Amino acid sequence: MKKFQVLTIIGTLFLVVGFALIAQTSVLAQDTAPTPPEPLENPPYLADYYNAWVASPHADFTAEAFRHWDSEGEIPENCAKCHSTPGYLDYMGADGSEFGSVDAPAELGSLVTCDACHDPIARDLTTVQFPSGAVVEDGTDATRCMQCHQGRASTDSVNARLTELALVESPDTVNPELGFINIHYYAAAASLYGSEARGGYQYDGQIYQMRNNHVPGFDTCSDCHNPHSLEINVELCADCHEDVESVEDLQFIRMNGSLSDYDGDEDINEGIAEEIAGLQEILYESIQTYATEISGVGIVYESHSHPYWFIDGNGNGEVDEGEVSGDTRYNAFTANLLRAAYNYQVVAKDPGGYAHNPQYMIHLLYDSIESLSVALQTEVEGIVRNDPGHFNISAEAFRHWDAEGEVPATCARCHSETGLPVWIENGSNIAEPISNSLNCSTCHDSVQDFTLFELEAATFPSGAVLSFAPEGEADDNNLCLACHQGRESTVSVNNAIRRANVGDDEVAQGLSFRNVHYFAAGATLFGSEAMGAYQYEGMEYNGRNYHDGEDEAGTCVDCHDAHTGERDIELCADCHDDVEESEDTRLIRVTDDVELIDYDGDGDAEEPIRDEIMSFEDALLVAIQAYANETVGTAIAYDSHSHPYWFIDTNGNGVADPEEVNGDNRFTTWTPNLLRAAYNYQYIQKDPGVYAHNPDYAMQVLYDSLNSIGGADAVATFTRPPVAPPAE
């Protein structure tokens, strides 16, 4: 039988069942004590779908979601879309009316039946519009779910009301006309789409998690929920999450991409739902403190009673008898208090928010706490807003392309969640959608077994092909090298100079700065083998740094947590005394059984090796600026946070002042000698862990840069580290 014939038969059967249900529900709607729909036995190939629906919230005839309007006799237009099948079909335009609005009240008692979701118009939906006005493309079955599970308010509606009452510029002024704005129940789609839907209140100047991309295959409503029973498929969850045997167990899930102590209770092993609950408690306490001290009227919250926020008449901070009624609704809102109370409700009314978009929930709660703390003039201490390392969605590494709408092919490998797998499979990249951050599936080829993509070697910008493993074997750390290698090298700098075709100290038209890019730790670690820094002709340099020469601390993940990027301090402390926290690693200097050399000539051969390197850096910047003044005739200044980093020092004060840091004022009069030195200065700046990754290599390239641009006098007090013999 052809596919379209099968679909037609199934669709017809659904309609038959749907019409039967409409007839049944219209009768039940007239009963004072309705009975729920009965399970269906025939036809057997529809019984499973129907019976799953019968047991679902969509068919719960006693639920407030369907009984709320019994005394009114009909469901009003602004509620009918999601609380009745006729209203949903009216919204779809299935009754011949215009799509996107409900034109008439709906009769009581229709539930949400087969007819709603299986209507041809609903079936073909590809977009959903949220209360904020944001329209998102989806194109999956979930689009039907999101028409209702999106809430009824947003950042935009809150701001509109605050603007209407002229409270934007006076956020701590009480206005009795300002009432609570409620997002409504189960706004799971608004949570899922995060900052794109703007369902929560998003504070100006903050960056919020976008759509939460779980993992492939578990990324839409119906991937995780049975579309008929609405139950979560716990067995599928258990494929990736250990110890999950029931729905209740889901709240205890905690993944390696979210290892911050968000609620400050010193427990990063608790479930992410518990972290969110901890922040909720802190926010509620902040709301009550603010209401008492700023608004002057105590406040309490009751989750089951509209409008949820009430006057705390006796000031005990708890909901007491007589405090929950329309007459005691809270009436001393300020803009600041409303925003925070709104976000508290957003999180409270999506009980699955910890799965739908946990980071968005954390952002909303944290920013609300912070906003109230500013008004209360208190410090926000102990709590954390962002995920660490590769999962920090606020980082420029992932937000740089938001305005463009995609990550270009030249950046996608390392700055998008899908880029690395594409590169591993194809050896090249195409443009990718912008990402919140990296994802489990960025490095793991199986999110069930958490096996990693295999990479036998990484090709560096110099052309060097390097690996942590013997030839022909893969190593997990090679995945780190795929990105943490920089984007320039001795080879690319030499090619640029060769094209310029001028003498070392001649200004070359068209010669521009070459930026190695950030965190080229892999290139540093492999030293002369990778040629990441500029290596001067005729000079020798250290190769790969094996650290202690043993297997314990010789690779990326030996020393760093693969997910957070944080150092394994306990491992460092095994060899280095007085190392108790991450900052202490900067104070390390190996003194036992080592011939100490005072590399920077300051008379202290026992100072931290990082301090020795910094002395080289400081001297090189001075030499670069002197050379630019005396040889080039144009003063130069450096700003480590602003591309292209080197700018014309228009006032000659040696500092990149704010008015000098812009693209129109970039430094352009480069000589080959100046470019080499500036490149190496930037290289060391952009590997903040160079003192551990390969300290002698760093000092060697800095010494040679200083000697090249400043001459013998510039290095008179410095000592170049001897070149270590290659490891056997």
What does this structure look like?
The protein has 728 residues and is mainly α. Among the domains are: 3-124, no CATH class; 158-220 and 254-296 and 332-380, no CATH class; 491-634 and 669-728, no CATH class. The strands form 6 sheets. It has a two-stranded antiparallel ribbon. α27 (672-685) packs antiparallel against α29 (695-710). The longest helix is centred in the N-terminal third of the chain and has 26 residues, at 3-28. It is elongated and about 95 Å long.
Observed structural traits:
disordered N terminus; 12 strands; two-stranded antiparallel sheet; single chain; 29 helices; two-stranded antiparallel ribbon; elongated; mainly alpha; 728 residues
Neighbour order of strands in the largest sheet: 1-2
Query: What is the strand tally?
Result: 12
Helical element count? Answer: 29
Rounded average pLDDT:
92
List the helices and strands and how they pair.
Layout: H1 3-28, H2 44-54, H3 64-67, H4 77-83, H5 85-92, H6 114-117, H7 120-123, E1 127-129, E2 135-137, H8 142-146, H9 155-164, H10 188-197, H11 221-224, H12 234-240, H13 272-295, E3 299-301, E4 309-311, H14 335-348, H15 353-356, H16 358-376, H17 396-399, E5 406-407, H18 409-415, H19 419-426, E6 432-433, H20 440-443, E7 444-446, E8 451-452, E9 458-459, E10 465-466, H21 478-483, H22 490-500, H23 521-526, H24 556-559, H25 569-575, H26 609-632, E11 636-638, E12 646-648, H27 672-685, H28 690-693, H29 695-710
Antiparallel strand pairs: 1-2, 3-4, 5-6, 7-8, 9-10, 11-12
Helix pairs in contact: 4-5, 13-14, 13-16, 14-16, 18-19, 26-27, 26-29, 27-29
